Amino acid sequence: MKSNTVIDFTAYVEQRSQSTKEHQIKPSDSEELGTAIQTLIQQLRQSNPFKQSLI
User: Fold this and answer.
1) Model's pTM, two decimal places?
2) Is 52's pLDDT higher than 80?
3) 32 in a domain, yes or no?
4) Dihedrals φ, ψ of 49, to 5°?
């Protein structure tokens, strides 16, 4: 499950970077990316097998 999260996030970033080549970054784009990063960090914390704060 952890690897799927990373792969999906990587695909998301690649998709966003491709679209930003065609137009300038809008505030909503950076907000979406920020939300995606926060979600990824939450998922990493929840899936941490050591139950320690790594992030």
Assistant:
1) 0.39
2) no
3) yes
4) -70, -20
